[in-house]
Design a protein that fits this description.
- Helix content is about 45%, strand content about 15%.
- The chain is an alpha+beta fold.
- The protein folds into two domains: about 15-45 and about 235-340, Arc Repressor Mutant, subunit A; about 55-130 and about 135-220, Sandwich (Jelly Rolls), CATH 2.60.120.280.
- It has a five-stranded antiparallel sheet with strand order 1-8-3-6-9. Strands 2-7-4-5 form a four-stranded antiparallel sheet, with no helix packed on it.
- α5 (about 175-190) packs antiparallel against α6 (about 200-220) and α9 packs across α10 (about 265-275).
- The chain starts with 14 loop residues before the first helix and ends with a helix.
- About 35% of the residues are buried.
């Protein structure tokens, strides 16, 4: 990473930076091809799997809820999945006055672990009056499955933070929800007839559900700009794959645009529209994520780590690292190891 105008340097990117012509590449064609992840002999890069591995998110357990008609149950600091099996429920994210009503067949994912409450739906403002039922009849009691997820690497929290607090897939139907129904049945079977290996089966099924829900949401028309939408975008996905495969490479906007078969201007605009941030900002996040892995898992000197993740100087790396994590890299390494010793 250099301070030359055409490179995604360790400084804030401006619109002019994104459209400026890069310097000629010094790498030979074979190295350039490898850096871009364009080896024709390999399968397409599975970026979603790589990103989820970097978060180290894994399914934990599943619980069946069938409370009394009036209730409120809180969930906090853990990724949660709610599969509504009967009745109608009210979902409220803490500190958010908006109440979302969910009913039988809905699937609710809270990927960031935002604190929330699920309660009975209460009286309907405009009830559906059934034959023989009194007016203002309350909804049927709710019954649902709740799966939880653990996040093994909080340092990759920006990946989850860019996702919405809650993702809701409504009703049944469509290939995505048909797959979710199969997974739901498997969960119920493991709960009702537990045997050797059931805990691992439940964890794996929850992982599967998490990925299925993310895929279905990102493919929808109301998906917000984030890394997931970019990863699944056929025109932007190759650039994200290239960045994740080689975060230490001295990327230019032109290189990344070429990997996506787009012009520089079209690439820069589409990247921001799908990912929600400029390529330089996203690259900086990926580089610092890679640095935390090296600080935690190796004994490499900070100077070498800075070079490996694309910084030209230890001072520039330390400034960027402290700005994001609030502490210099060497101290972060000591504190992290002390917590796990």
């Amino acid at each position: 990473m250099t301070d030359s105008p055409g490179h995604l340097a360790d400084r804030p990117a401006t619109p002019a930076d994104l459209l400026r012509s890069p310097q000629e590449l010094a790498d030979p064609p074979a190295l350039e091809e490898a850096a871009l992840g364009l080896d024709a002999d390999t399968q397409p890069h599975d970026l979603l799997s790589e990103l989820l591995r970097s978060v180290r998110l894994s399914g934990e357990r599943i619980v069946a809820y069938a409370p009394l008609r009036t209730f409120s149950i809180g969930f906090a600091d853990v990724g949660s999945l709610h599969i509504i099996e009967e009745g109608e429920l009210a979902l409220r994210i803490d500190r958010d006055p908006h109440v979302e009503h969910v009913s039988c067949g809905d699937v609710v994912l809270l990927p960031r672990g935002d604190p929330h409450h699920i309660s009975d739906a209460g009286k309907r403002a405009h009830p559906t009056v059934r034959a023989g039922a009194p007016e203002n009849d309350a909804p049927e009691p709710g019954r649902w499955l709740c799966g939880t997820f653990t996040i093994g690497d909080p340092q990759a929290s920006h990946l989850l933070a860019s996702l919405p607090a809650v993702i809701i897939l409504r009703g049944a139907g469509g290939p995505a929800l048909e797959g979710l129904e199969v997974a739901r049945r498997m969960l119920v079977f493991e709960m009702q007839s537990p045997s050797q290996g059931s805990a691992v089966m439940v964890a794996r099924i929850l992982d599967l559900l998490f990925i299925q829900i993310l895929r279905a949401w990102a493919a929808g028309t109301d998906a917000e700009p984030n890394w997931l939408a970019g990863a699944l975008d056929p025109q932007i996905g190759p650039a994200l794959s290239a960045i994740h495969r080689g975060p230490g490479h001295d990327w230019t906007v032109e290189e990344l645009a070429r990997a996506c078969n787009l012009s520089r201007s079209a690439f820069a605009a589409r990247f921001v529209a799908r990912v929600g941030k400029p390529p330089a900002t996203y690259l900086a996040h990926v580089r610092l994520d890679a640095a935390t892995d090296l600080l935690r898992d190796t004994s490499l000197p900070v100077t070498l780590i800075a070079k490996n993740v694309g910084y030209t100087s230890e001072a520039a790396f330390s400034r960027a690292f402290k700005h994001r994590y609030g502490t210099p890299p060497a101290r972060w390494r000591r504190d992290t190891r002390a917590k796990h010793s």
